[in-house]
Amino acid sequence: MPRRTVHEVTVQDVQKRRNPSKHYVYLIKVCWSDGSTEVIYRRYSKFFDLQMELLDKFPVEGGQKDPKRRIIPFLPGFPYSITREARRLSLSVSFTPKSPFLS
């Protein structure tokens, strides 16, 4: 049986939550190579942690030696105040892995 890999990741929505404290949660749709999909919920801090891990484990794909070869997308700065425009922009963010190491 072939290994299932990520085909595409898309931010579907941003929700403001107040419990246990005020924070934002991103609803992420993950499309897999076998055609299945899942919706996951993550805070910005989890995206930041993942970004740091990817850049550490994949320095070439992260552009450490040659910035022109970077295929790991840049992570936008934390949205301290989510405006309607910022929310609209976040809904258009998607990521399709371009390296077999990132699938």
UniProtKB/TrEMBL annotation:
Stretches assigned to the PX domain: 4-103
An annotated GO cellular component: cytoplasm
Superkingdom classification of source: Eukaryota
A GO biological-process term: superoxide anion generation
Pfam families: PX
A GO molecular-function descriptor: phosphatidylinositol binding
PANTHER family cross-referenced by the UniProt entry: SH3 AND PX DOMAIN-CONTAINING PROTEIN 2B (PTHR15706:SF26), SH3 MULTIPLE DOMAIN (PTHR15706)
Protein name: PX domain-containing protein
Organism: Alosa alosa (allis shad)
Top-level taxonomy: Eukaryota, Metazoa, Chordata, Craniata, Vertebrata
